[in-house]
Amino acid sequence: MQEEKAASMTLSRDVYHDFLDRVARIPIHGLGLSVDVYSPDLISLLAELTRRQVLPGYLEVFHATSSALAAVRTQTDLPLPYHGEGLWVTQPGADSDALFQEEARTLASHLALLRSAWSNHECATKHIAGYSFGTYLPPLYTAASADTVARNIRKVQAIFDQQALLSGGNAPLFLLEVPPLTYFIAGTLPVPAYFRRVTDQVDCGLVLDIGHLWTVYRYSGAWHCQSLWQFLDDFLREFPVERVVEIHVAGLTVHESLAGAEPVSESLAGHRLPQWTDAHAAPIPPVLFKMLDHILRGGRLEQLRGVALEVDTKPSDLIADELARFLDRYQHVFDQSVPRGPDRCAPMPNGGRFLAGHGSEGETASLIEAYDLYVQVVSGRADPAGLNWTAPTACADDLNRYRTQYLPYEILHWGGDIEAMFPETCRALAGRQIALGGFVSYWFRIPHPMTRSYDFFDVKIDRFVEFVSEQTADLTPLVQREAAELRLAYQAANEGPPQSMSTRL
Length: 505
Known about the structure:
Blueprint: H1 2-23, E1 30-35, H2 42-52, E2 59-62, H3 66-75, E3 82-83, H4 98-114, E4 118-122, E5 125-128, E6 131-137, H5 143-163, E7 173-177, H6 191-199, E8 205-209, H7 210-219, H8 228-238, E9 244-249, E10 252-254, E11 264-265, E12 272-273, E13 276-278, H9 286-297, E14 306-310, H10 316-337, H11 361-378, H12 396-413, H13 418-421, H14 423-431, H15 437-443, H16 456-471, H17 476-495
Parallel strand pairs: 1-2, 1-14, 2-3, 3-4, 4-7, 7-8, 8-9, 9-14
Antiparallel strand pairs: 5-6, 10-13, 11-12
Helix pairs in contact: 2-10, 3-4, 4-5, 5-6, 16-17
């Protein structure tokens, strides 16, 4: 047993030094923006930033088509790391999933096109056990889940190494982002321990999103017994901060589905604690910058390469205003906080950890079963019972809020309002007294395995056509016609490049 443990610790140390070798090849990016290609139009945003003479150090571009990314690459010489989407590394079964492999190869081609130093992915998913969601759901925080994530990242990084080589023979580095909590958490491992277990096994970097960290404080139930600053110190003490390559700061706000809801009283400090969730279009609360200050002062950020405001869906002039204030406040702080020239011989923090095994078929099957229950719980079709749901039951009101308010709103309105998408069909359904609320329950009636790249808008179209056809067959031609029109318009919008711009950064 001692020999096995020693061998595992040696492997863990090797993983850490492999990470140091990879990150040493990534230049300092500085202060930047994490942006979408179309919301706002990225070329227009570049023009506005140029006009205002507010220049980011880099742009982290969100997932888009190859043609759109190629257009962006021609318009700027700024570093363009990539924020991926649709590669669900939290989910078991990637070994035999041809679609997962295809998505990884497509991702590699995008990284090569942009010449990205890294590719960032949420440690989260929008597709679980055959059921689709519009916004990210966090993983099960368990040992088996962490081991699965590590194995899946290892496979993806190998594809990067083979198919996305940059100048000098370097490959983009896979970064795993701490995801937000939207009212609930499930699992048996604390969040910091979960990410420590992942990084003990694979040479990836991490993205620490400050707003996401606030939601961990709020919806893990930590706020019941700790101040925010006590929580933050405890979290950072256990979290592998030395693996953080990028930090994000984005907005938080009360979700539209909770309009008019009152915040709850914080039991420890007695102040009112908002029911905020992750929202990139919203203003950034001052408390997040206070948290960022605290983290930057705490040290252990030797491998930090960039700090970005996540600003997709905001108007270009507002982004320019936020970036100007951000640069003014943090440029000197960043320069002082991040050492130049990483120590590639740095000792492994905490002296190494036990490295998990490769995972048996039984463990994979058990995790698949656990995720099946997970989706049943969050969709309101099963009670939050069992070991993985012990902690969140103390926050039952928050979980219920997700199931009864947030999720129905998401299915009916997020990423495309059903009544706006299918106006004629919805009027016809209303005339027959068929309520759209029935579409929510229909959504979770049976699973639908993924057969193509994930797109929630496409999924909504597919499911609504099925729903209408089942409810009243004579409306099938109408809903199919509206669906075909939607698909054509959506394809044209996504395939066309952003508008051209003569000025280059």
